[in-house]
Write the structure tokens for this entry.
Amino acid sequence: MPPPKRSPIWQALAAHHRAARGSHLRDLLADAKRTRALTFSRDGLHLDLSKNRMTAETVDLLLALAREREVEDRRRALFAGEAVNETEGRAALHMALRAQAKDGFKTQGTAVGRAVADTLARMATLTREIGTGQRRGATGKRFTDVVNIGIGGSDLGPRMVCGALGPARHLTPHFVANVDAADIQDVLARLDPATTLFVVSSKTFTTQETLANAETAKRWLTPALGKRAVAAHFVAVTRNIDGATGFGLADDNLFPIWDWVGGRYSVWSAIGLPVALAYGMPAFRALLKGARAMDRHFLDTPLEKNLPVLLAMAGIWNRNFEGIAGHAVLPYDQRLDDLPIYLQQLEMESNGKSIDRNGQPVAQATAPVIFGQAGTIGQHAFYQLLHQGTDKISSDFIAAAQGPDGPGTAKDGGGHRDKLLANFLAQPAALALGRDAGPGVPPHKTFPGNRPSTTILLDRLDPYHLGMLLALYEHKVFVQGVIWNVNSFDQFGVELGKELATPLVGALAGGTAPRGLDPSTKALLTRVRKLRGGKKPGAKR
């Protein structure tokens, strides 16, 4: 497929943008009919695109571009289990993890539904046995805490979901990802070995950061409980069975992860085991059910009403025609505080690419820089730049109409949610409308406005609607990758730094510095070793 900028429709969009260059959101928002036309709902998830500088004509052109770029055909290939991850020759079939048997997902001609169902059944068994006390720790005490050891998608997904669902109902979840020893030491310091379960998540069981933390956890556990306790206190999610059993794990504590599940799409698999252990298997299944509902909507709904497609194309408009390079994710719910970093990985690792599917440099901008923070905290941190900065930033505002206790406010004596939602409504309006200079209004108190944003309102933040929200973003990212003609499912840019780090570990421990180091890195290595009391790199030990 040729680069999108060569498309006549892309050129038509560029001309349309030039013609509308002088329009302002305060004028566009005066048209109530336009607002209704740019507002969409599906099963308790409401999407309002009206605060983006678009019209019905803009949307028509964007959808024409989506059709020209074969979004519908690529969508079919995705759900059919074809090798849409071309560079690695793999399917991207994370939708199968939340499917029903009748959905019939296959990859390379092999049905995957049975393997998924068996894994969910095993997760349910483990969760039930630990919850009832049938399965206990090595000393006979019941488990009270679960520590997830992983990195990337093996950490961000379950960490974000557990944060979003609030206080745990069963085991209290903890998360360790950083290879910095302080991360795991701070977690272990408040736990009891006799009542702690570890979930080690690594597809290869060779991930440097994860294994370092797993070994530290084992060294913490065994002096108190003995080496044999490892089999009772450790669970692994991996495809490297030999590596996990060599670590000391029991066969019935090993859960699979498949090649057709990418890390940043893996929370729906056994990677989500901490979610099930903390909130129960019904909550985890509700999460899957919500995601499947969005999957079916994305697959079956015409583009004109398709929420992931519409959200994706609004992003294309802002990135490629409005020229916006930064995008803020602003959840007005403290429990969604980890959503921005989760979406950082999802979007920037998926579409932060400069080489297209043909092996050629891309001809247009791809993923924007994603950042954000929860609600009113962000208002007092970086919103100044959003409102009056020299660079225009687009935003997603996300909130739930009802709090965790339902529609009433009996447990909210201070009116917290009303204040929260008032800010959720006010901030995108202020970004759009701005404020001109007038009598008594000095220039530094004026706001240009015309800053685009999208509003996503959930009926309630619960497992089902959270599943819908996450799947919405997954499919949005896929559609944008199709438009830009990049592979959204590989991440080779992550690897080079890791490759360079491996020999430096030995050099920091006293070994010879790797050959070919640039002068800056070599000088820094020398300084670090000196400050730590070591010898110069390359010196004999």
In short: The first strand starts at residue 39 and ends at 42. The chain has three domains: 4-68+301-404+414-433+448-490, 96-283, 493-531.
